[in-house]
Specification:
Length: 524
């Protein structure tokens, strides 16, 4: 770590602990994005695509333990009164318990009504979510060195969608627009210079592993093979290498992977979906709390990947005003990124029928692996000495400024993401593309029809014999047979309306303003 990076890390820790003395607000919600723990070898292309193997590489027992310990650290910071009171980051609602279960029972403060866990649909993240939550809500018996996880724990439901349809968490594997940018970067002067700079070292490594492709574009796979074998003894056996060679291998992989995740390359394509989900939850919590209620999600977690974490931070352009470790290295295994919503006691004790943004602040903190301390990640909208600093500490933003920063970067609906990424394979993207074809073919939804199969008619046509069937209608019929008549009929009609509305008069009106973020997310 550079001297500047070390100073920034020390400052972040000081800022974090200063909140216990200075902050005046209550913590009312957290939105946490975790990286999975240690897993088996993960081959992937230079464009971040992975194999079609169902579930992907499995989470290792050591990975379960890493996530479990990250959950314990999370509980110390946010759940357990004996420790969370020290930093004024206690999440349980007043007069409730700290366990997960059925509300109204003794000791229960968390349930499916205020806790929501989400994950990508892969072995390593599903098991990481379960392990992390076992630490957040641990059982009475403890883990041991022989048993990586305790038994008999209270399980928290974890939700996901099929990997083929997951654009919010795993959009980085299925965004052609981003992949085109990445392909261009692989031919850029910056990349070519790094190739020349590291050619001699990579040739040395080639002598040790002649079976591997040691090109710079493929360097992740070289690093991963050495790293997984060296630390966990799984995957193909690799030759022993000295510490200097290993450290150089790691450093080159860190440069490559973080360079792929810069805001210039990713924009909001890889993090805009998660960002929108977080904003919807924050706005819902703000409105409920302002009315003096507690009926909102307090604890939301996403079990994900370092690309999801970095994609979200790139969408926020967090590196513009500060330096933090994840700009030069990928997040550690089981790393945690948390966005906290703080509110003044007045906001929670004086209900109003017209909720405002006053008295709310957002702060971001991160833990770079379960053994690390939590540190503040200063947000670009932070202003020294303002109301947010008094509420949640330095590096935080008033909710109003946070929304001004994030709303333009949020991607609320799948159809918006499909268009931005030029994806035509995800089901929602196929429906969006179908809606476009229907409009271009002169077909419009028949609002008066109760039969989905008769709900789309040719505009201006009589419906009589002799008319040819549009290729779009044929394609629609095929797709209906795959996903079901009811679902696609609704989706196609909504898609036509959205497409026509967005492109009326040639003007794109899909920008996600506050009114779009306040409701539930669109179907497509």
């Amino acid at each position: 770590m550079s001297i500047w990076g070390l100073k920034s890390a020390v400052l972040a820790l000081l800022v974090l602990h200063s909140c216990s003395l200075l902050c005046t607000a209550d913590l009312v919600m957290v939105y946490s994005i975790q990286r999975h723990g240690a897993r088996n070898v993960l081959p992937k292309s230079s464009l971040l695509t992975e194999s079609e193997a169902t579930g992907g590489p499995t989470l290792l027992p050591q990975g379960q333990r890493q996530c479990y310990e990250a959950g314990l650290a999370f509980a110390r910071r946010y759940i357990n009164p004996g420790t969370c009171n020290l930093t004024k980051t206690c999440l349980p609602a007043p007069d409730t318990g700290i366990q997960y279960g059925v509300l109204g029972q003794p000791g229960i403060g968390f349930s499916n009504y205020n806790t929501y866990a989400n994950t990508s649909a892969l072995d390593r993240t599903i098991m990481s979510a379960e392990s992390f939550l076992a630490g957040v809500f641990p059982p009475t018996n403890n883990a041991t060195n022989e048993m990586f996880l305790p038994t008999g724990q209270q399980l928290v439901p974890v939700y996901s969608v099929a990997d083929t349809e997951d654009w919010r968490i795993r959009g980085y594997t299925k965004c052609p627009t981003y992949q085109q940018r990445l392909q261009q970067w692989l031919g850029s002067p910056e990349f070519k210079a790094k190739e020349a700079e590291t050619a001699a070292f990579r040739n040395e490594v080639q002598q040790l592993v002649p079976q591997l492709n040691v090109s710079l574009a493929n360097w992740w796979n070289v690093y991963d093979a050495f790293n997984v074998w060296r630390n966990y003894q799984v995957g193909d056996a690799m030759p022993d290498i000295d510490a200097d060679t290993y450290n150089k291998t790691v450093a080159l992989a860190m440069w490559l992977e973080t360079a792929k995740m810069t805001p210039e390359l990713t924009g909001n394509l890889l993090g805009g979906g998660l960002l929108a989900d977080m904003l919807i939850r924050i706005i819902a919590a703000q409105q409920v709390v302002s009315r003096g209620s507690q009926g909102h999600y307090r604890l939301l977690t996403v079990s994900s990947h370092y690309n999801a974490q970095l994609g979200l931070l790139s969408a926020l352009q967090t590196g513009k005003q500060t330096t933090y470790p994840w700009q030069s290295k990928i997040p550690a295994l089981a790393a945690v990124l948390v966005f906290e919503l703080h509110a003044t006691p007045q906001s929670t004790s004086k209900p109003t029928t017209q909720p405002t943004l006053d008295g709310f602040a957002v702060r971001a903190v991160y833990q770079d692996g379960p053994k690390a301390q939590y540190a503040v990640l200063p947000l670009p909208c932070a202003q020294s000495g303002d109301a947010a600093e008094a509420l949640a500490g330095p590096g935080s933003c008033t909710l109003e400024r946070f929304l001004a920063l994030t709303q333009p970067q949020a991607i609320v609906s799948a159809s918006d993401w499909c268009e931005a990424c030029n994806n035509k394979e995800v089901l929602a993207c196929r429906v969006t593309n179908m809606a476009r074809q229907l409009v271009e073919a002169g077909l419009t939804p028949n609002d008066g029809s109760s039969d989905g199969s008769r709900g789309i008619v040719a505009s201006g046509g009589s419906g009589g014999g002799g008319s040819s069937v549009s290729p779009a209608v044929i394609a629609l019929a095929v797709l209906v047979s795959v996903v079901g008549t009811g679902l696609l009929a609704v989706a196609a009609v909504m898609g036509v309306r959205k497409y026509k509305g967005r492109h009326a008069g040639g003007k794109d009106v899909s920008s996600p303003g506050p009114e779009r973020l306040q409701g539930t997310q669109d179907i497509i």
